[in-house]
Amino acid sequence: MNSGVAIYPGSFDPITKGHTNIIERGLELFEHLIVAVAVNSSKKTIFSVEERLEQLRDMFADNDRVIVDSFTDCLLVDYAKQRKAHAILRGLRTVSDYEYEFQMAHANRHLAPDIDTIFMMTESKYSHLSSTLIKEIVRYGGACHEMLDPQIEQHLKNKMK
Ligand code: ADP
Description:
5 strands; alpha/beta; globular; Rossmann fold; binds adenosine-5'-diphosphate
């Protein structure tokens, strides 16, 4: 199966191999994936929206089935409708992810019954991986090549100098 457009929203601060794994697998299901940076002014991020968009665009420059975008100050389902997406893709790692995602998926379903949320269970090797953890590892000089694209690692190191 390979049809339609789905949105994969997130902070991507920065994008990790856990995220890219979900994107690669999402492309098995959907013709196009919109990787959408959610701009949330109350969330403190290490990279600006523009930096994250640039990183994502560089990473997927060779794949015209991946569209990189951002959305601000609107409901995710309204953004999805605007982009003519019929699904929202999310990754699940832990029970705490599940509780949050369960609530969000129900709220979104209530707001837009024609848009489905599709969950993908993390690859087990990425189950412990988060953008927050990655930032700590890089900050203290830990090895992260199995978790992070080398370019992103460099961006992170430069930022932390
Ligand atoms: P958010 O702030 O919306 O949680 P993130 O960038 O942290 O944004 O995550 C975006 C999506 O990717 C979420 O659905 C999250 O659960 C998923 N995700 C993050 N890290 C991983 C991982 N290691 N494996 C699978 N899914 C992940």
